[in-house]
Amino acid sequence: MNIVVLVKQVPDTYGERTLREDGRIDRERGTPALDEIDERALEVALRLRETAGGEVTVLTMGPPEAVVALRKALAMGADRAVHVCDEALAGSDALQTAAVLAAAVRATAAPGAATFDLVVAGNESTDGRTAAVPAMLAERLGLPQLTFLGSVAVDAGIVTGLRITPEGTTELCAALPAVISVTEGSAQPRFPNFKGIMSARSKPLTTLTLADLADHGLVEAEAGGANSWSLVCTVTARPARAGGTVISDDGTGGSRIAAFLAAANLI
């Protein structure tokens, strides 16, 4: 089985994260890191490869320094990496990101290269939080989509997963090829070992530009911040956390707690 995993370099969630005046994330502050949810997506792919064989390719769209995230993914066990890097991509929204990634998947699966059975992504990045790219990518590729999965299995050309929500658990399935996204409840990612770190240096890492994707279905107007379909108009800082409510139990504590939770729509 040949699998593509979408990964992204994001500001470390444990560091300081700020926005620029134009509403975009200031990526020069803080420590960049491979997104945690993408590590889980990669782990899902690696486990599928271990049982079914094949190859795992990690794919990212980002600035030159995003190569660091790709190297970590290679050290974790991915077989090869593809980096879509072009200055014109700065400021791309989810719609444009999906268009570029779809073209990159097609380019990576061009004649002479591997064809792909499965595209795996995290359900949402920790910086953008749109949770839209996997579904948009599936639409672009004309493939079925199974999103927000907590577990994944593949057997006899069928991918199956469990989507767990507050409303209940749903079992989903689709014939391969397909696009899936996984949640924080999926596989716990492995740590790169010394052998993996050393071997990552010699694994293939291909860089593509927008010009390279022109022959794979990407229209110039679909890429780049200048053509973005969405615009951040204003940004407001998160309000400071207010103090909690203290309820002393004078015999009515239980009912008062229940009333408090009901007022907050928590029960």
UniProtKB/TrEMBL annotation:
- Give the record's keywords alphabetically: Electron transport, Transport
Which CDD domains does the entry mention?
ETF_beta (cd01714)
Named cofactor requirement(s): FAD
Q: Which Pfam families would you find in this protein's record? A: ETF (PF01012)
Gene Ontology, cellular component aspect: cytosol
- In the record, what terms sit under GO molecular function? electron transfer activity
Keyword Electron transport present in the record's keywords: the answer is yes
- The keyword Lipoprotein is annotated on this UniProt entry: no
Q: Could you tell me which residue ranges the Electron transfer flavoprotein alpha/beta-subunit N-terminal domain spans?
A: 22-216
Gene3D superfamilies membership: HUPs
Query: Quaternary arrangement and interactors, per the entry?
Result: Heterodimer of an alpha and a beta subunit.
Q: What does this protein do?
A: The electron transfer flavoprotein serves as a specific electron acceptor for other dehydrogenases. It transfers the electrons to the main respiratory chain via ETF-ubiquinone oxidoreductase (ETF dehydrogenase).
Please report which protein family the annotation says this sequence is part of: Belongs to the ETF beta-subunit/FixA family.
Q: What is this protein called?
A: Electron transfer flavoprotein subunit beta
The opening ranks of the lineage are: Bacteria, Bacillati, Actinomycetota, Actinomycetes, Micrococcales
